[in-house]
UniProtKB/TrEMBL annotation:
The keyword rRNA processing does not apply. Pfam families: DUF1091. This is Drosophila melanogaster. It comes from the Eukaryota. The keyword Signal applies. The gene is Dyak\GE20601. It comes from Drosophila yakuba. Keywords: Signal. Residues 1-22 form the signal peptide.
Amino acid sequence: MGAPRCLIALLACLFLVEEVEPKVEFTNFKCTSLDPKFAIVEHCYLKSVNRTYKYLALKINLLQKPVTRIKVNGATWKRFNGYKPSLYNVTIDACKFLKNPKSNPVADYIHRLFRTYSNMNHSCPFNHDVIIDKLPISFVNNQVTAVLPVPPGDYMFQSHWYAYDINRATVQVYLTIF
């Protein structure tokens, strides 16, 4: 007699418990031009339109076009008493990668986080400025929590952009996963 009541009580509790979904929030965004004669950062910011619509925007003006050789070093960092290297540190030839995105699954995953909202979706040469236009946190949230789940914590994604083997810019995206 007692076992069925316990089972019913357990099932009732399960129906009352709200399902908690992971959530991603941008916490900071930094872009730095290391060679102002080659490229300048026109804008690099996070914007909170309201409680549910937040986005990231970036525009880097390339001053020496066309750019035909680009390498990108991307690394993930997790905050443990300061930011420590976490899981990935990858350097790719961006021109080769953009011709064949499936050649590097890690770079492809990171590229898919912003590709739809960017003009960085073709192979070299780049004859235009680099733009990420209104990348919404809701899109990133889906990619980071549903497509490839990432454990909760504070993270930084840092990228170094090399043109002709010279480090020209760095971009850092800070986010929290709840």
